Structures are given as C-alpha cells and as structure tokens.
Amino acid sequence: MGEFNGKVVLITGASSGIGAETALHFAAEGAGLALVGRDEGRLEKSAKDCMVKGLAKDKVLTIKADMCVEDDVKRIVESTITHFGRLDVLVNNAGGSIPCFLTSEDLMKNYDRIVKLNVRSVIQLTNLATTHLIASKGSVVNVSSVCGKRVMAGMLLPYNISKAAVDQFTRCAALELASKGVRVNAVNPGTIMTPIKLKYGKSEEEVRERASKTHPMGRAGESNEVAPAIKFLASNVASFITGETLSIDGGRHVGCAR
Ligand SMILES: NC(=O)c1ccc[n+]([C@@H]2O[C@H](COP(=O)([O-])OP(=O)(O)OC[C@H]3O[C@@H](n4cnc5c(N)ncnc54)[C@H](OP(=O)(O)O)[C@@H]3O)[C@@H](O)[C@H]2O)c1
C-alpha cells in the first residue's frame, strides 16, 4: 500500500505531458484519481495507463472539462466529491501558452486567453476545492514555470506574467491556509519535453538543441523528472513545506546572460 492509498488526488491537464505522468506516479501510490482534460481519447488513455499501474477502475474518474468555462470548473469539484466523497490533493497543472509580442496586434486577446487558463481557472478551482482540502488537511501543488521567476524575453509575455501570478498566488494561498492545515506549493519547470513544446512548429530536435544551450545542465528535462517533485510536495515528507516554488529546470533560473 502506497502513501496515498485512501487519498484522492485531482489533476488538471491529466490528458498529456506532465499531468499524465503525475497521474501515473500517484496511481503507483494507490491514490484515487480525478483526471481532468478536454481531449476525451487522451484522458481515457491516461486512465487506462493508471489502471495498468494497478489502480482499480473505480479509483480513476475522468472528467472532460474546459478550464476556461466556469461551469465546467464547478463540475470538476462536484463530480470528484460525488464520486470519492473527499479531496486530499489538488494539482493545478493545466496550462498553455500563445506566442505573442508587445507589438502584436492580438496581444490583449491572447493575454486574456492565457490569463484565464493559467491564472483565473487555477484560482477558481482552488477556491471551490478549499473547504474539502481543509476537511482533509490536504495540499495544493501548482505547476508554474521558470517563466514565473525569470523572463523569457519576447514572445512569451502573457505566459511570463501568468506564471509569475501563479507563483504569487501560491504564496498568498499558502499563507491563508497554513493555519488550517493545508499546504500550498508550486513547481517551476524549465523546458520539459511534452507536446506543448512542439505546438508552434519546432521539431523535437530543435527544442532539445535549444534547451541544451539555455539550461546549465545542458539538456531539456522530462515529465518523469517533474512528477516525483509534485508527489513529494503533496506528500507527508514535505509536511513542513508551504509557499515554496521549486525550480526543476537544470539550473536555468540560477544564471543570467553574459
Ligand atoms: N513542457 C514545458 O516545457 C513546461 C515548462 C514549464 C511549465 N510547464 C507547464 O506545465 C503544465 C503542463 O504542460 P505540459 O508541458 O504537460 O503540456 P501539454 O502536454 O500540452 O499538456 C497540457 C495539458 O493542459 C490541458 N489543457 C490545456 N488547456 C486546457 C483547457 N482549456 N481546459 C482543460 N485542460 C486544458 C491539456 O488537456 P487537453 O488538451 O485534453 O485539454 C493537457 O492535458 C502547464 O501549466 C505548462 O505551462 C510546462
């Protein structure tokens, strides 16, 4: 029996990349899982992969939902509580980016879309989950980015701002909930090889080549280097850690250009 046996973990963006890998890591520890995404096919694949790890069918709930639709976000918490009766860990992982410059004509449209997905939905879901997390003395792990701490100049302007907001939200929520027994932390990955990196025309080789130059450890990271850190922050091993924003970026946040 794993540490999370009998506990319930809700993961947004569980149909792909870091979220799907995180689901596998919690499944291996016996957690009940509520997996959220828009793509039903990929969400079901994530659920099946968790069952291959030994999780019973009734311990995996898939919820098709768009994080940018308020009623969908409400339904995520309602469905989780109806199915499992409790919530112990919330992993706010769903997110995205749109390449956009300060000079872009569609800057404000893209800013609104990114902030709605990366920030507003995170705050709304956490708001709705908080009473259940207080009841279970649970925890929250937000998936931020190195861009929350350091600026990737140019095209990621709305994304940089959104992830800085996620970091500050992590600290705000951690302070507010500390006395109620709920811990709130974040992970800040550098380049991690997931489908998000290939959305804007770059090949895997190009992404890896660039990451090898921008990350002091000389390479990109993998989802299975982020998921264990998320599980760690949610676990009892991290029982005195709250308000932390943990870099998982091969040292990228440490340096500066010269
Ligand atoms: N990969 C990196 O280099 C990197 C670096 C730093 C931070 N991050 C962060 O890590 C998180 C996960 O990204 P990833 O790299 O794993 O990318 P990914 O493989 O593209 O996964 C993104 C996930 O977010 C979900 N999602 C996106 N928009 C959604 C919406 N409107 N409603 C519901 N779900 C939505 C997607 O699900 P559907 O497609 O099924 O809707 C998918 O499961 C993001 O917050 C990202 O900003 C990634």
From TrEMBL:
Keyword Magnesium belongs to the record: no
GO terms assigned for molecular function: oxidoreductase activity
Pfam families xrefs: adh_short_C2
Keywords: Oxidoreductase
Entry superkingdom: Eukaryota
TM spans (from-to): none
PANTHER family: EG:BACR7A4.14 PROTEIN-RELATED (PTHR43975:SF2), ZGC:101858 (PTHR43975)
NCBIfam families given in the database record: PRK07231.1
Name of the protein in its database record: Uncharacterized protein
Species this chain originates from: Strongylocentrotus purpuratus (Purple sea urchin)
Origin organism lineage: Eukaryota, Metazoa, Echinodermata, Eleutherozoa, Echinozoa
